[in-house]
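#struct-help
A.M.: can someone run this one for me? Single chain, 186 residues.
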Amino acid sequence: MFEFNYDAFISYRRSDGIAVARWLRRTLVGFCLPAALRGVYGKKLRVYLDTAYERGTSDFYQQSIKPALLSSRYLIVVATPDAMRRPGGVEDWIEREIRDFSAGPGAGNVIVARGAGDFDGPLPGDLKQTFPNIEIVDLRGAGPLWFLSFSRVVRLSAEKLKIVAPLLNIPPEEMNRPGIAGGHLV
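D.P.: on it. Structure tokens below:
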């Protein structure tokens, strides 16, 4: 059986997806299940997020990105307006990450997190065509000051469970238990 080093790899466009990507990684890594579920499903999530700011090169992709991508159980694509296909033949890393992940051992384990733009807007990398029934998790409004709005906190807490459940292999009926909705950060 293949051994995964990461539970998830977050793919995003730096120009308009970095705040949501960082929030998502921090939230997932810090998520702690309620005690009733911790013994059965509880583990700390391992989430890969490339935060290097140097210009990406083919070597960087081959030596750093691709190995992490292929050793992740899930690919989380942060869908933002800038995440769409780049014009003029510029290499598109999001499309490349989706393509490489889909050819690897985690193929099919793709989650879309809408980070900005219209909720029903287009998805990068032809995800809507490849996975016509893909669920889109609404993380619009996540970022550094997300906690300042009570309604945003409630909505984002519910939405993050749509990502946490598959990453921890928790069946949907378990996610509806009282007290799990918030989880908590440690």
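A.M.: thanks! The radius of gyration is 16 Å.
D.P.: also worth noting: Helices lie at 14-30, 35-41, 58-70, 93-102, 127-130, 150-167, 172-175.
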